[in-house]
Amino acid sequence: PLVSMKDMLNKAKSEGYAVGQFNLNNLEFTQAILQAAEEEKSPVILGVSEGAARYMGGFKTVVGLVKNLMDEYHVTVPVAIHLDHGSSFEKCVEAMYAGFTSVMIDGSHYPLEKNIALTKRVVDVAHTLGVSVEAELGRIGGQEDDLIVDDAEAAYAVPEECKELVEATGVDCFAPALGSVHGPYKGEPNLGFDHMKKIDSLVGIPLVLHGGTGIPTKDVQKAIAFGHAKINVNTESQISSAKAVRETLDADAEMYDPRKYLGPAREAIKATVIGKMREFGSSQKA
Ligand code: G3H
Ligand code: ZN
């Protein structure tokens, strides 16, 4: 069923695993992720950035696609459709109106008071509709679609500010920037585990780890132990699908049927997602 993230993340946190947010980019991503979740009997969060929604034909197109595929595949596991890095109150409302069951309002580039006020406004609307809300503090580095944060701008979340934001807004889950990066890492990721531990004990609600691509398993396990119940992955599925397309086309210069090169891309995404579900511990938890 289509549900919000609230119950799935609270269950994950109390049982010590994380639910993956896997980002949609097109039809094949949507198919692969839903198939992986059903096969693994795993709850799943479908992440949709504003850029990806534009590419796919708008929020309503995405919701229609997800609902129809869920029917077609007889999906029984909990699925959330989540706006990733929502840029404004208006975009969040538009997504909810289209049928999204969850939204992230990313006010991380604003001063604390403005981030709190904006997040609170989104929570007030979302919670009357049963929609869950994720907020962010600090700045996650790297690039995802329109969102670009260079090394100088990237900043760790301040624990006391996290407590203040979570208490003042009533958000369902929370993404503190702690050194993870969107896109491939330059060298080994360096996550701020001391900050993480402190933030977990101060806020209590499920934490969200962005930039899940390329984080070593030992760090994933530590992050889960320190309160993370949601881990976002996009680039890793993109890399595996691009590799499959490249290899398939390279192997046959006469190939032109998209089903013949996007089919292998879909299989590659599915394999990536299944690997992450097992690593995060969400397999067989639905
Ligand atoms: O919001 C989406 C994620 O944070 C994706 O990060 O592309 O580095 O896996 P990633
Ligand atoms: Zn992100």
From TrEMBL:
The active site is at residue 84. One of its GO terms (molecular function) is fructose-bisphosphate aldolase activity. Binds 2 Zn(2+) ions per subunit. One is catalytic and the other provides a structural contribution. Keywords: Lyase, Metal-binding, Zinc. GO terms for biological process: fructose 1,6-bisphosphate metabolic process; glycolytic process. Its cofactor is Zn(2+). Dihydroxyacetone phosphate binds at residues 183, 211-213, 232-235. It comes from the Bacteria. Zn(2+) 2 binds at residues 106, 136. SUPFAM superfamilies: Aldolase (SSF51569). Zn(2+) 1 binds at residues 85, 182, 210. PANTHER family: D-TAGATOSE-1,6-BISPHOSPHATE ALDOLASE, D-TAGATOSE-1,6-BISPHOSPHATE ALDOLASE SUBUNIT GATY-RELATED. This is Fructose-bisphosphate aldolase. It comes from Shouchella lonarensis.
